[in-house]
Amino acid sequence: MPLLFDPVNYAIPGFVALIVVEMLIARTRDRQRYCPRDTLTSLLLGFGSTVSSALTAGLVFAISMWVYQFRFFTIGFAWYWFPVAFVLDDLAYYFAHRTGHRVRWFWASHVIHHSSQHYNLSTALRQTWTGFVSLSFLFRLPLFLIGFHPLMIFFCAGLNLIYQFWIHTETIGRMPRWFEAVMNTPSHHRVHHATNPRYLDRNYAGVFIVWDRLLGTFEAERDDERPRYGIVKDLGSFNLFWAAFHEWVGIAKDVWAAPDLKSRILYMIAPPGWSHDGSRDTSETIKARWEAREQRGIAWKQPTSSSSVEDRAGAPSQAA
Amino acid sequence: MSKLAIFGGSIVAVLVLALLARLLGLGGARIGSAEEARAAAEAMISGFEGGAVALGSDGRAALVHGGAADAALLKVHGARIAARHLRAPFVSAPASGGLAIDSGDARFGTVVLKGVTAL
Fold first, then answer.
1. Between chain A's N and C termini, which has fewer beta carbons within 10 Å?
2. Are strands B80-87 and B110-114 parallel, antiparallel or unpaired?
């Protein structure tokens, strides 16, 4: 068994250097791409994430090894198994990430990564403190059952994380067409971080965007609709602990106040925004409201009859 | 590579990068006009249709009235605008040089509309 290392540790100097480069570019092109307090918050959240991961890594590895003993096959460490493991790990990441947006328990952990209203390389490092609590590692367990050694999978997961760093930028527009077709890119991932109704809950890919294309969750970035970053209800605060735990606090309050057992469970596992009385917005209700408004806007704009001039006088105002 | 060295190096890098962002003069934002406030409110709050705007004279905050006894309370947050959806009646009180609006959210805080005396 080879002694595999954590590649992320060796990438940290590169992360720092690229953030410096992006800051210098922001200074010349658009100073609002960075905000010192937001950057400090993102980076401290990233630091906290490495600490929490270090505290739970042993337990996650122990669980992984326990599952591995029930494997169907024994897949070795031959070089050609690494690309296979990398692709399958990325598929597992897709499902974990999709669940992270569609199930509130997982979202409570993942929301931290989306809580910045900026989209720059420091945002990439804004990572969860509660990944272990949300049990997101469960999505990799099938790979151990197949027979991939946990060391191999965690090595691939580290490479996956490093890949995802560079796509958190507005500095790069579009990559070559063939690359955009197969790989996750800054353009695709800007869509994922956007709260525009058109872009909500799209592009869950880690490295290969093909998963979204195959599974019906792909949305292309449009030149006429600039992404607006953050979460549906932005924090409006730079408090580290609030950023890390606010959704867990929300779950606790909702479960406490829920009228019945079914509602208590759904406040934990239903999509974010679900409420027992329908008083809150999920991404579906936001999209539906936006689509209705778009249709209304199109109807108002079409001068198909002599009455259209009068109609326009009462047209609703358009969203930005 | 020891974990302690990684943690130590990381925390130094975090502080240096945050300081660099400040030294480079990055950030800065203001709400430039009533139209900008209205557009931001409509973009940030699902289904919201903005009407009259009370814009702070310093461009740091605004209250955009909606069409259903509601309003969008905006504040400059770092280099971006953050919003809260309020329902009437709005809780306000005179503040130094303006009017303080309670967002109803302790983390979001109270927002002062400079130069505004009444909604």
1. N
2. unpaired
| Burial grade of B58 (CB within 10 A; 0-12, 13-18, 19 or more) | middle
Inside any domain, residue A240: no
Note whether A48 and A177 are same-domain residues: yes
Q: Which of residues 75-104 of B touch A (CB under 8 A)?
A: 75, 77-80, 82-84, 103
A285 and A173, same structural domain? no
Q: In 3D, which of A214, A157, A160, A164 has the Cα closest to residue A188?
A: A164
Domain with A173 in it = 37-215
Do residues A169 and A52 share a domain? yes
**Total domains present in chain A:** 2
Q: Is residue A45 part of a domain?
A: yes
Q: Which of A16, A19, A320 is facing B43, going by the closest CB pair?
A: A320
pTM for this structure?
Answer: 0.90
Query: Which residues 53-72 of B are in CB contact (within 8 Å) with A?
Result: none
Which chain B positions have a beta carbon within 8 Å of A18's beta carbon? Answer: none
Each residue's pLDDT tens digit, A276-307: 999 999 999 999 999 998 888 766 545 444 33
Sequence spans of domains, chain B: 34-114
pLDDT tens sequence across A77-103: 999 999 999 999 999 999 999 999 999
